[in-house]
From TrEMBL:
Keyword Zinc on entry: yes
Keyword annotations of the record: Hydrolase, Metal-binding, Metalloprotease, Protease, Zinc
Gene3D superfamilies named among the record's database cross-references: Collagenase (Catalytic Domain)
Domain Lysine-specific metallo-endopeptidase residue range list: 2-144
Homology family: Belongs to the peptidase M35 family.
Single GO biological process annotation from the record: proteolysis
One term of GO molecular function: metalloendopeptidase activity
Biological classification of the source: Eukaryota, Fungi, Dikarya, Ascomycota, Pezizomycotina
Keyword presence, Protease: yes
Source species: Pyricularia oryzae (strain 70-15 / ATCC MYA-4617 / FGSC 8958) (Rice blast fungus)
Record's protein name: Lysine-specific metallo-endopeptidase domain-containing protein
Names of the cofactor(s): Zn(2+)
Length: 151
């Protein structure tokens, strides 16, 4: 899914503009770098990201995944997957892919995205350019649209 997003950032300008509201080369390069890092993080042979299933405190009460926002450096490389992430009646495979893109985009050295307390497709599409370029759900929804070829 991240690979489809990587190529769509460059080749699907209408899709890119719908989600990220940009045509500038610097933003395109930054988005592609982020999706490339997400793809590499999800490779089975990668050891730079630790996927765990034991999130601290109550971070799984309302979420499928969690990434600590601090420390904000390369030592922060953990993605916690919550029990609901694995519930086949709650999420389909493409939903899990979207969630993985969302969560890994939070990792500081990947993109250090935020949630801005904004979730869902329509809410993501309504964000300003400045927010959408650093919004985790926008990354997830864009990747899903690219994967589904929803141009």
């Amino acid at each position: 899914m991240a690979d489809a997003a990587y190529w769509a950032v460059e080749k699907q300008s209408n899709l890119r503009f719908r989600y990220f509201k940009t045509h500038t080369e610097g933003n395109i390069n930054a988005l592609q770098q982020a999706f490339h890092k997400i793809e590499k993080a999800c490779d089975l042979g990668s050891d730079n990201i630790v996927f765990r299933c034991d999130p601290p405190n109550h971070h799984c009460d309302k979420a499928a995944g969690y990434v600590p926002l601090y420390p904000a450096d390369e030592s922060n490389n953990q993605v916690f997957l919550c029990p609901s992430f694995f519930n086949k009646y709650h999420y389909h495979d493409v939903d899990r892919g979207r969630i993985l893109v969302h969560e890994t985009s939070h990792i500081p050295y990947i993109r250090h995205t935020e949630d801005y307390n904004t979730y869902g497709l329509l809410a993501s599409l309504a964000l300003s350019k400045e927010l959408s370029l650093y919004h985790a759900d926008t990354f997830g929804w864009f990747a899903l649209a690219a994967y589904n070829k929803d141009y």
